[in-house]
Amino acid sequence: MDSETLRIFAAVAAELSITRAAARLGRAPSNVTTRIQQLEIDLGTELFVRTGKRLSLSPAGERLVDYGARMLALEDEARQVVSGGGHAGVLRLGSMESTAAARLPAILAAFHQRQPATRMQLQTGPSMPLLEQVRNGQLDCAFVALPADFGGVEALADLGLQARAVWREQLLLAMPSGALAGGDIDHLAIRSLAAFPQGCTYRGVAEALLGLHGSTEWRVQEMASYHAMIACVAAGGCVTLLPESVLNLSPAREQLQTWPAGPADTLLVWRERSFTPALEHLLALLPEVADGADA
């Protein structure tokens, strides 16, 4: 089970198609099929379920996706560290949607300008899943916000993680104009919250601020983007909580009413013993670019 075979497996697992994986890898489909069959023989189990021309991952294949990604990441990390940065490698970066929208464009542009040979892979999601992916080696680092009950930066050390505070966001509860009939959020005329799925720190802030726990009046509409959330708020259907830096990007900003929900720090988190040259370059860049991008 060499690294090239794992890369082929990862491509087939992502595409669920030999033809598309072969095109992505620049290989002949027959070669990809042979390598997958050899890997299955080597492991003594089927990695894909074949139904006609359709592929799906078997339970064993689903487990190998995680292990394969970690093994390839460890190989890349070793090459970067041993070569002293001579091997440019890949930086697998995780980020909250809000950070990706409002903060990362300047960071990624500056990083690419200074480290053009390093490939950047960006994945967005809620903070808690991102933390777990950093911890288990699926990501090299991630921009996250810690929940109030997490235990702070000290609790990260117990997970083998380190962190650096990068931005302090001002959180706002956004609502349709006129929604505060009584002058404060206890008298909101709307009882619907638009938010990301569980694991999002800002969702937890909103639920605590609005008293959703144990409430039968409120319902949560789970959405995948701030664009959708702001659109629903502008349409008068719900409220949402988001950083001011994100709301300022929306043309609907002037149509909405807001309520201050306090500050929240954005941290860059990485594993203690996984300090690659690519990550070192990113950390060196942050003070300069982050200060310029701060709201």
TrEMBL record:
Residues 1-58 form the HTH lysR-type domain. Coiled coil: none annotated. GO terms for molecular function: DNA-binding transcription factor activity; transcription cis-regulatory region binding. It comes from the Bacteria. The keyword Chaperone does not apply. Keywords: DNA-binding, Transcription, Transcription regulation. Belongs to the LysR transcriptional regulatory family. PANTHER family: HTH-TYPE TRANSCRIPTIONAL REGULATOR (PTHR30126), HTH-TYPE TRANSCRIPTIONAL REGULATOR GLTR (PTHR30126:SF40). This is LysR family transcriptional regulator. It comes from Halopseudomonas pachastrellae.
